[in-house]
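Appendix B. One record, verbatim.
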Amino acid sequence: VQLQESGPGLVKPSQTLSLTCTVSGGSITTSNYAWRWIRQAPGKGLEWIGSITSSGSTYYSPSLKSRTSISRDTSKNQFTLQLSSVTPEDTGVYYCYGRAYWGQGTQVTVSS
């Protein structure tokens, strides 16, 4: 299984960050798996953002829930993160994860 994040590397404050994870080698609808977005801010540990299950149910970190939306496109075997009203504190490396596999991560910087 391979995961690949894609999306803009620079987002302006107050805008919406949008990232897509493309999965190959396995279906995101395979039962009993959850697909996750995780991030790491500079100098900090890993932070779980949210998950979407094989059935399409979503779960979000309480601290980010009001700004987060995770969706999927099963025809493309992709799942997407949207994080609204971003601030510089949302800067970091964003990873997608599933079935014990990690994407390589993508740097997102929030700056005007």
